[in-house]
Amino acid sequence: MSRKSEYRFEKFGFLAPTMIEDIQVRRGSIPLSETVPPQLWVAEWSNQLFVKLTAGGIVGWGEVLPAAGNTGEPYVAMIERLTEGVRGGNESEIGSLWKTMRRISFTGGYGITTGAISGIDIALWDIVGKKSGLPVFKLIGPKGGGLAPKLSRYVSLSRYADSEKLREAVGHLIDRGYRAIKIHQSVEDTLEGVKLLRDSFGRDFELMADLNCGFSYAAAEEFMRRVEPHELKWVEEPVWPPDDFDSLAKLNKMGPVAAGENFFSIHEFSRLLEQDALTFYQPDVAKCGGITALVEILGAIKAHSGKIALHNRPHNGWIGLVAGAHVASCLDTESIIESPPNEIPEKYFAFNAKLDKDSIEVGGPGLGITPIEPIPESTSPPKLLRFH
Q1: What is the pTM of this model?
Q2: CA separation for the pair 220, 329 (Å, rounded)
Q3: DSSP-H helix ranges across the chain
């Protein structure tokens, strides 16, 4: 990380050094809130991976998005390896601990590595916030004074079996007051679904389509041309492979393109920014290395005048979503944040965040959100998700 990200918190003189005592993983199975009609991927998106870290008797919570193969086990193994290097360290020296974790895993590349780091790093920030009595957004930088601003949220749907079921589900959300909605249909029926939604409900709401890297460049180019009249806010990850920066840049000239959940470092985002490859940049705090990494990534995006739309899989985990919102509250109040099509479930979380249908406002101390234990745990591994 850059020097500006080497957080040590000497400015809070009351933060006496304490020691990281324990790091545990919790394999959650908080159920996805079903829509009407029920969406697909309910079982697959009803799994979470939380990190519970204890230092100086204070507990902090983090979250990992186990996207690789839709299974948490490789991440669990990496967290256990990282624990060996940070246990006994001073929890306030977050920047130094981040570097230690990255060096332990430097031959492992990104993805699982940075995801595992994310969970520990987020939990460390939660502890420092609780220890200081401050919300995380006030720890990040000079713009963190006062109350957190309201950030715009949008709801993200799972997949539906056909366009008519999609239309019915979106209709119910619009009736409930949601005005920014993203769909995840297959590449074969996304265009049909978009057309049906616009014909049914007009243009008085924001609509986004995530293609999950489903097209070749030629097919993506054709899709961009055909979808343009329907005025999508963005087309997300239109082309395979996800790191084809040149194709993303060309498609972004045809219409607004969004991506970022499959980029895991400041270096990748810097390359995207240099090429003006995207209109909306979508880092995920639970995948890219946690709050420490996200601060640097958002700083680079803001310096380039890019638009930020934080990615969160809408799987009812909420800790990662709230962690990202703390960073955006300090660094970019124009950010928009992906969320499940429901409120935070009070059965599973104690929280200080405030939500309405189109905004989220975070609070503290720390992250201001804690899973209620015992967390329901998964009894079997989730199925392999097939996006295309």
Answers
A1: 0.94
A2: 34
A3: 73-86, 94-104, 112-132, 136-140, 163-175, 190-201, 217-227, 245-252, 266-274, 290-303, 319-331
DSSP states of 227-274 as a string?
A: HGGG--SEEES-BSSTT-HHHHHHHHTTS-EEE-TT--SHHHHHHHHH
If phi > 0 it is left, if psi is from -120 to 50 it is alpha, else beta; for residue 283 that is beta
Secondary structure of 304-346 in the HEC alphabet? CCCEEEECCCCCCCCHHHHHHHHHHHHHCCCCEEEECCCCCCC
Q: What is the CATH number of the domain that holds 296?
A: 3.20.20.120
Please give the radius of gyration of the chain, using alpha carbons only, rounded to the nearest integer. Answer: 20
Dihedral over alpha carbons 371, 373, 374, 375 (to 10 degrees): 0
Given a cut of 90, whether residue 205 has pLDDT beyond it is yes
Token pair of 370 as six digits: 């804690």
- Among 61-70, 156-165, 298-307, name the one with the lowest average pLDDT: 61-70
Position 189, amino acid: D
Q: Based on the domain organization, do 346 and 285 belong to the same domain? A: yes
Domain with 269 in it = 143-371
For 340, residues 6+ apart whose C-beta sits below 8 A from its C-beta are: 32, 33, 155, 156, 314, 315, 316
Residue 148 is predicted with a pLDDT of 87
Is the domain of 44 the same as that of 154?
no
